[in-house]
Specification:
This protein is mostly beta strands. It has strands at about 1-5, 10, 20, 25, 35-40, 45-60, 60-65, 75-80, 85, 90-100, 110-120, 135-145, 150-155, 160-165, 170-175, 185-190, 195-200, 210-215, 225-230, 235-240. About 0% of the residues lie in helices and about 50% in strands.
């Protein structure tokens, strides 16, 4: 298992996977919609199941409420197809959209986990050869809050930076200390869901002295650039429309 941005995961091992997903983080458009591109890199067809879950942050922890037929009436998002086949070397576009329309909560991000799980596609009468291993992806789909309250705290202690997002929306934080002398291992980006706290370790060429810090909302409606120094704390809080 590999952890990616926001806890998005790749299930399986390294190497070429039977299925590939175009992104581990999808931000909805102004209409609350998005699309994933699923690619089959294998020589045989692949059957894919898609499951959605609503993500909530409770006391700083990520809680997932998976959608099933038993809670159908409470679904806030759906995909165009939850089961499909991708032929060898082909791609499939799967749409995802909010179901709440005008009733969506504009004061908070709506956040969902989209889990794509492939299984071998076996035609009738054809024997399955060998042992097949499936690889799945779980991506994050975010419908950004329209009425944003940006509030965060960032503190640096040598090579470690503590991030706290008290906003009602997801933030992207970019640390950059690259220069003519250091062009690699000098920057890092982190994505933080609302209500989450995270400590990250800076790359080796970004640990000493001041570091340029850029904070944006997940949809780039908000942008702020600051300089973070050792033992210093950056704090910002403001409502934006």
């Amino acid at each position: 298992m590999k952890k990616l941005v926001l806890g998005c995961i790749l299930l399986g091992s390294t190497g070429l996977n039977a299925m590939a997903l175009d992104t581990m983080l999808k931000v909805a458009d102004k209409n609350g919609q998005g699309a994933y591109v699923v690619t089959n890199n294998e020589l045989d067809p692949v059957f894919v199941n898609v499951n959605l879950a609503k993500i909530k942050i409770k006391q700083g922890d990520v809680v997932k409420d998976y959608y099933t037929k038993d809670n159908l009436l409470s679904w806030e998002a759906s995909v165009t197809q939850n089961k499909f086949i991708v032929k060898p070397g082909m791609k499939k576009i799967i749409g995802i959209r909010a179901l709440c329309a005008d009733s969506c909560d504009e004061n908070h991000d709506s956040i969902f986990a989209a889990q794509f799980t492939p299984t071998p596609y076996k035609k009738k009468g054809k024997e399955e050869k060998g042992v097949s291993i499936s690889y799945g992806y779980e991506s994050i789909f975010i419908i950004p809050a329209k009425n944003k309250k940006i509030s965060y705290t960032i503190k640096k202690n040598k090579s470690l930076v503590r991030l706290k997002n008290d906003s009602n929306t997801t933030l992207k934080v970019f640390f950059n200390q690259c220069s003519a002398m250091f062009k690699s291992d000098c920057s890092i980006k982190s994505v933080l869901l609302p209500g989450r706290v995270r400590t990250i370790k800076l790359p080796k060429n970004a640990q000493k002295g001041n570091i340029n810090t850029i904070v944006t909302s997940i949809d780039d409606d908000f942008y702020r650039k600051e300089v973070l120094g050792d033992e210093n704390e950056l704090h910002f809080s403001k409502k934006i429309n």
